Amino acid sequence: QKEVEQDPGPLSVPEGAIVSLNCTYSNSAFQYFMWYRQYSRKGPELLMYTYSSGNKEDGRFTAQVDKSSKYISLFIRDSQPSDSATYLCAIPSGNTPLVFGKGTRLSVIA
Amino acid sequence: KAGVTQTPRYLIKTRGQQVTLSCSPISGHRSVSWYQQTPGQGLQFLFEYFSETQRNKGNFPGRFSGRQFSNSRSEMNVSTLELGDSALYLCASSPRGGQGYEQYFGPGTRLTVT
């Protein structure tokens, strides 16, 4: 079983929709959870960073961690065409600074 | 503050050659990590350097190596290039590295091996 699994999509939604992006992880000892956004031909940029369980909100973005299910989510409210990108979940694991999911490609259609 | 910079941005090499990629971290960051990104495997960790010492290494062959200088700048080298080494190579810097610290990525170097 991979340490971090993410549905690669692609996901296509109309402008204004609520988007839900998800990852599952295998190790219940994981404590830090990150979401990165990567535009085409760019490096990943850190969007959200949460520690342990619960929710964290930043503008239109909400990161949620459910440790009992080993499930992390990123919600985007009022999605915009500028949100079209690949979203990657990432978790520090053992000796690896970050283990990444494969990324979900999102397209927001105007 | 300036972000992470990587040079060159694009590179085309032939099988069997070697290549050196360079990374300058955010000022004040002492940890530099390298990742390889391909469509099939996604982002995979290569190695991490902190204060000129390799702290961690991913599951890549010995053809992949790196180093870090006293000013925290880092280079990675790939010898005897193979077609499968074609990828986006990303460098990330962090204040201290290790778990719990955010990593900030550069734009990457796109390497094509022909």
Task: Give a quick set of tags describing it.
heterodimer, A: 110 residues, mainly beta, 6-stranded mixed beta sheet, 5-stranded antiparallel beta sheet, 59% strand, globular, B: 114 residues, 7-stranded mixed beta sheet, 4-stranded antiparallel beta sheet, 11 strands
Structure, described:
The complex is a heterodimer of chains A (110) and B (114). Chain A is mainly beta. Chain A has strands at 4-6, 11-14, 19-25, 32-38, 45-51, 54-58, 61-66, 71-76, 85-93, 96-100, 104-109. In chain A, strands 2, 4, 5, 9, 10 and 11 form a 6-stranded mixed beta sheet that branches. A 5-stranded antiparallel beta sheet of chain A has the order 1-3-8-7-6, with no helix packed on it. The radius of gyration of chain A is 13 Å and the shape is globular. The N and C termini of chain A lie far apart (38 Å). By secondary structure, chain B is an all-beta fold. In chain B, strands 2, 4, 5, 6, 9, 10 and 11 form a 7-stranded mixed beta sheet that branches. Chain B has a 4-stranded antiparallel beta sheet with strand order 1-3-8-7, with no helix packed on it. In chain B, a hairpin with a 3-residue loop joins strand 4 and strand 5. Chain B is globular and about 35 Å long. The mean pLDDT of chain B is 94. At the A-B interface, strand 4, strand 5, strand 9 and strand 10 of A face strand 4, strand 5, strand 6, strand 9 and strand 10 of B.
